[in-house]
Amino acid sequence: MSRTQYVMELETVRRNLIRMGETAVSLLAEALRAVVEPDPAQLEKASELEAQTDHQHRLIHDECLSLITRQAPVARDARLITGVLDAIVDLELIGDYAYEIVTLSSSMRRRPPLQVLSQVAEIGSRIQEVMTAAIDSWHGDSPAASSARPREIALKAECQAVYDKISRLTSLPGDATSYVDLMLVSRHLERILRHAVCVGEQAADAVSPREVLREA
């Protein structure tokens, strides 16, 4: 395989990673809608998106292994391939957590106060922004992923604050199951945030195929 062809296939892998990231963002959007206003159709849509992220994970994983076995990657290639392999694991986990949020939100027997649900969804929306920025960082040669860390610290604090608030609500009279489910939702959002930041940092550490091609 020529060097140019090899780099072209690296570029295909990068593009497939971006598509997987966009699928995961769509799944998170479904999850946030389900928190505030669950709909039976959301569960089916989320299930399809979750299955799609699993398929994309397998596809990209196999593409990376094929590139490794057909031609031993040089250091720069290896950085990109390992970055992609790490990122797709994070994206698959994001998909799993987002799907679980849809499941939890759809199965609540008694809806918590709308104010609390809206607060959780608002935090989730800001986490979605971090995730979108992380995916976008795989588009260019100079991703600015370092700016995500300060946002992660602030958003983690917000997740903990809303978790504590919901925890106090479990002591109110009546069935507390819905509040416990909402506490799990807040924890899943925090985990999604952590994995999203990792995806952005992996992009910052990787070398883009276009840069590799220029130096070939």
Task: Provide a descriptive summary of the structure in words.
By secondary structure, the chain is mainly α. It has a single domain, classed as Phosphate transport system protein phou homolog 2, domain 2 (Methane Monooxygenase Hydroxylase, Chain G, domain 1), CATH 1.20.58.220. 82% of the residues lie in helices and 0% in strands. The chain has seven helices and no strands. The protein has helices at 3-36, 40-70, 75-106, 114-136, 148-169, 177-205, 209-215. Helix 1 runs antiparallel to helix 2 (40-70), helix 1 (3-36) packs parallel to helix 3 (75-106) and helix 4 (114-136) packs parallel to helix 6 (177-205). The longest helix has 34 residues, at 3-36. It is elongated. The protein starts with a helix and ends with a helix. The model has no long low-confidence stretch (mean pLDDT 89).
Pick out its properties.
82% helix, single chain, Methane Monooxygenase Hydroxylase, Chain G, domain 1, 216 residues
Biggest pleated-sheet summary:
none
Q: What pattern of helices and strands is seen along the backbone?
A: HHHHHHH
Total strands: 0
CATH architecture: Up-down Bundle
Number of domains: 1
The rough form would be described as: elongated
Gap from first CA to last CA: 14 Å
Strand content: under 5%
Helical amount among residues, as a percent range? over 70%
Overall average residue pLDDT:
89
**Which radius of gyration do the C-alpha atoms yield?**
19 Å
Q: What's the helix count?
A: 7
Class derived from helix and strand content: mainly alpha
| Low-pLDDT sequence parts | none
CATH homologous superfamily designation? Phosphate transport system protein phou homolog 2, domain 2
CATH class: Mainly Alpha
